[in-house]
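Anyone have C-alpha cells for EamA-like transporter family protein? Sequence:
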Amino acid sequence: MRSFLASLPFAALTFLCWGVYGPLLHTGGTGMGKSRLASFICVGLAYFVIAVIVPILLLQLRGEKGYWSISGTVWSLFAGSCGAIGALGIIMALGLGGKPLYVMPLVFGCAPVVNTIVSMWMTNTFKDARLMFFVGIVMVAAGAAGVMFFKPAHKPHAPEKAVATTAGEEHPEHDPPAKTVSAEMRTTAADLTINEFIPVLLSIGLTALCWGTYGSVLHKGQHLLGDSRLRALLCVGLAYLLIAVIVPFGLLKTVWPAPIAWEWWGAGFALAAGAAGAFGALGMILAFNFGGKPIFVMPMVFGCAPVVNTFVEMTAQKSFSQISIWFALSLLLVISGAATVLIFSPKPKKKPGGPAPAPAESRKPAPADSHVATSRDSKSFDDDDEESTADAASPVEKS
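Reply: yep, here.
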C-alpha cells in the first residue's frame, strides 16, 4: 500500500502530461503553416533535450548501474523509433482533419490492447487468455466505433460566420480568428468524406500500433542494458533525434519543401507537446521505480489520460454543449475496455528457480546483482504470488 501511494504522484504526472499532449500538438500545428513536419521537428527537439542531453549529463556526473550492450542498444533504439513514428502518426491524423477530442482517446484506448497482445506474443501466453480479456477488447472496439460515430461536430450556425466574412469585409489576413474558425470547420470529421477520413483512421492505427509496441520493446532493451534506465532513455532520445529532427529537416530542405510560418507561439506549443510526452514517459518510469505495480499504474494512466485530453480540448474549444450522451458513454466504454484488457491480461507465472531471467542477470556486475537482491528483500512485505504476477503483468514495469 505504501509503495502504491508513493507511485501515485508520478502516475498522475504521466496521465496529466499525456492528456495535454494532443491539444498542445494540435494548437502548435496551427502556427506552423501547412507543414506537418515542422511541429514534428519541435517534438524531436524537446525529446533531444530531455532524453539525450539530460541522461548524458547524469551518466557523466553520477553514473548508474548497468552496462552497454549491442543487443540492448538495438532494442532500445527500436523502441525509440516506435515512439517517434507514433508521434508522427498523431501529427498526420491531426493534420489530415482529425480532432484531439476523439483522436487521442482512440489512441489511448487501442494502444494498451496492442501492448498486451505484443507482450503475450513475446512471452508466449496466448493460451492463458481468459474471457474477460477478450471482453475488454470487444469493449474497446465497440467504444471506438461509438466515439467515431458520435463525435461532436460544429453547429450549422458556424458557416454563416464564414459567409459573412467573404460577402462583407474582405480582409482574411486582417482577421485571423475568422480564418482559424473556417479552418477548424473544414477539419471537423463531419465535413470529411470517407476517402478523406480513412487516412485519419490509418494514422490513428499507426500510432496505436507503434505506441502499443513501445513498452514491450523498451523493457527488453532496458533489461539487456543491465536494467539501466538512463541508457535506455538515451537510446530513445537518439532515435527521436534521427527520425523526428534530422530526417524531417532534410526532407523540408530537399524533396518535400513546404511553407513554414515558424510563429513563436506555434513552435512553443509544439515544443511543449514534446516536453509533455517526454515527461510523461519519465513519470511512468518513476512510478514503477517507487514501487507502483502495472496492474494499478497502467489502467490509471490509460484511463485518466483520455479524460484529461477530452476536458482540455472541450474547454479550449468551448464545445461542452456539442457533446452528446452517446459520445460520453462511448468514451467511457473505451476507457473501461482498456483498463479491463490491462487488468485481465495473461500473466506468466514465475517458475521457482527458472532459468529464464538468469542469462541477463548473470551478465550484470556484482554490485548490480546485490542491488537487485536488496530491492527484492525490501519488498518482502508484499504477497509472493502478487509480486510474481505484478512483475510479469506489463512489459514496462522496469521502464
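The chain has 15 helices and no strands.
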